[in-house]
Structures are given as structure tokens and as C-alpha cells.
Known about the structure:
Layout: H1 2-9, E1 14-18, H2 24-28, H3 40-45, H4 50-53, E2 55-56, E3 63-66, H5 75-78, H6 88-93, E4 102-106, H7 113-121, E5 124-130, H8 133-152, E6 158-167, H9 172-185, E7 189-195, H10 198-202, H11 210-213, H12 218-233
Parallel strand pairs: 1-3, 1-4, 5-6, 6-7
Antiparallel strand pairs: 2-3
Amino acid sequence: MNLCSYLALEGYKVLAIDIDPQGNTTSGLGIDKKNLKYSAYDVISSDISAEEAILESELIKNLYVIPSTMELAGAEVELMNKKDKEVILRDKLDQVKDKFDYIFIDCPPSLGFLTINALAACNSVLIPIQCEFYALEGVGQLVNTIQLVKKSLNKDIEIEGILMSMYDSRVKLANEVVSEVRKFFKDKVYDTTIPRNIRLAEAPSYGLPIALYDNKCRGASSYEDLAKEFIKRQGGDSIG
């Protein structure tokens, strides 16, 4: 949500696709879930095209969203016996991908049908890791899943980068986690870290990305730095 916002503010045309039933990206960008004509659920479960479900952000120019609703929670069961169910999202995105500079898919925190669809559709994976011990266990599972997807569904998928979040330099464990992650993923780890920051935690409850809620706080500065580092790694320039 915040990375997409800063990339859009830099002048890139960005599509954020929310396929997490919790819909945090949707509500965090000020979209009212109760008044949606179509959502990611319709795109995945029916003949609705991705283009029909895209909303233009009223908050930030160049930012577009395919929103999420709780209906997505039932998608895995509904589509269990559907042919090619793992590549539904990829096939739908083929129709719109050339219209955007970047497309981000916000996944659920589980490795089910929705996440597999995202992994089958994307070029690369950006993995945020909280600076906590148990977060490392989940990363191992995700890396294994990415390798399986690479073998069977998407031979081009790569790990784009690792983002350390909820970082507090005063906490010994946080520094140990960062050290372990850098040891394993090496230069895939972004130099930018996202700190624990109360303003970052508050912003979604107001339906605003941090760039609009408080662009002077430490959290905002970190996400702005992340966007610039992300662009640089892509070989691009700030164009906004």
C-alpha cells in the first residue's frame, strides 16, 4: 500500500491488486468495501475482467486498485474443482498488464489458492519480514513454495527483494534477525528498513497511506526511501 503510493507519486502508473480477504490494502487506500460493483473475488471467480474491477484512486494520481472483499475467503473452496484454477489471475492480468508500469499483488498471510494464483501471475516476489524470530519460519515455507511454483507454473518467477519491517535498532533480537536474513539472502535484502512507527500503525485506520497521513514521520521517510531504492534496482529513474 505505501510502496505503491510512493511509486505513483513518483509518476509511475501503478496497479495494486488486493487478494487478501481481510482487505487491508483496500481499506487502507480509503476504498469503501460496501459500495463496490466488482472486486478481486469477481475477477477470480467469474467472467468479470480485471479491467472491469479496476478503480482509480481518489487519493493519489496514477494509483489504481482492484479491491478485496471478505467473499475471497470462500474462493478456495468454490474453485477447488475448476480447471486451471492456479492460473486464473495470470490469464486475467494478461489483458491489462501493458497498461501499467508496476502491478503489485497483496497476498494473504497463508500459502493457499489465492497466493499460488499470485505467484503464478507475477514476475517476482517482494517479501516483507518482521524483525521477529517466528517470521523466519514463515519465510522458509514461502521460499520452498516459490521453488515449487517455479518448477510447475511459472518458470520466470524470482525473489525481487527482502524488506525488513517493524525494525527497532535498540532491540538485540531485531538486529540478530536482520543479520540472519542478510546472511541467507545477501544482496536481495533492501538497504532500507521500515521502523516500528506509531504513525504507520495509525494511517490505515484513517483510510490513508502514510504519504498522505503524515509524510514527515520516520515511517513515511522510510517508505519514500524504499520506493527510490526499488526504482533504482529496477534500473529506472524518479520521473515525478
